[in-house]
Amino acid sequence: MANAFKIYLSALVFLFVGTVFVFNPFSAVGTFELPKMIVLLLAVGTMNILATFYIGQKFFVKLPHIYMWMGVLLIGQLVAFIFSADHLVSLVGTHYRHQGLLTYIHFILLSLHSYWFFTLFPAEQTKIVWRWIVGIGAGACVFAIISAFIPGTLFSTAFFEQRIYGTFGNPNYLAVFILVMLPFVFFSIDLKRLSKVGLAILFLTTLFFTGSRTALLVVGAVFGVYWAWYLWFHNKNGFFVGSILVILSLGILVIISSSSQTDNAFWERFSWQDKAFTSFETRLTFWQAGVEMYLDRPLVGHGQDMIQAHIMPYMPAHVQENDLFYVDRVHSEPLDMLLMYGPLTVLGYLGFFGLALFGNKCNVFVADKYWAILATKLSIIMLSLFLLINFSTITTNVFLFFLGGYLVSQNTLSKKH
């Protein structure tokens, strides 16, 4: 089993490193996803072989009932594929997203492997995964900052209003990745206080320069609610002092943003001007078109990565006539899933991750024992909030399904003990 653990861990590290750092060196933006899909197939394929030939009968341990929801998700995916107008696209995905049926099957398998990994191997061994995750996240932040100064077009911030994006091809992709990483920095018991402070500054600085307002709001809201909850039950004086400081800080930010005038595209994103709401107005247009498109085919979806092929007739004239618009997502993951995969997939998705989040009754305030569970739950919550008005990527789904499998394993182990 020692060799099995090493191979399993190596495959997971390869998956995390690959889906974060591997990119297409011949494309400036957009098509960074293909290499990440290839990494996913190779890593999960390796784990499939390992589980079959090295772990033996332990590979076929009885799965908890929660995986029935993953079965519902898979059935929904298969139905969407069957009724798709283009089976090739629905199998491998479009060149911008690569989230076809093949990719989604590997997400499901990854969740199973995560469950088996944390169930079969002792916690003293598996805890190294969290160190790898923090280290990979830090490396991604450093590279994103450095790459903004590399000459040429590959990482040029000119593509996105001076916003950094590193190896992710889009600032929002980097921002949501940082959201997933942050709780593992803040709550890790393996990091010393100085290291935590340094890493927190690195992650938050990188997040700020992605220019993602949604990500910044999510971080503030989730951690604000968590710390308010914690202080209310453990230190009421700290709660009231913290509340006053937060209110004062928000007031100062509103005053600064409402009075700021700038010609810089990046800083303008944080000013209280009409232009700052352009992206939200565009999203409203996309959501309306998405709802109309969904109502025309509400039961089976249009097929994996098939939004771009069908949505334009539902768009207003100014979008249809503007060649700059390439609409293959409506910027809301739940609505995107309904459009592409249909209600069965969404039902399975919500059932699995909902039960994974709330099925464990352990006291997450016992930091020494449950810090990884707390960090995982906050990661999934922040990711879910972000995706309400954005869309997923291969990297975000890799971490989402991996963390979901981890939570299920801990729910199962807690019931045994």
TrEMBL record:
Keywords: Membrane, Transmembrane, Transmembrane helix. Residues 199-349 form the O-antigen ligase-related domain. It is a multi-pass membrane protein. Pfam families: Wzy_C. The keyword Transmembrane applies. This is O-antigen ligase-related domain-containing protein. The keyword Transmembrane helix applies. InterPro entries: O-antigen_ligase-rel_domated, WaaL-like.
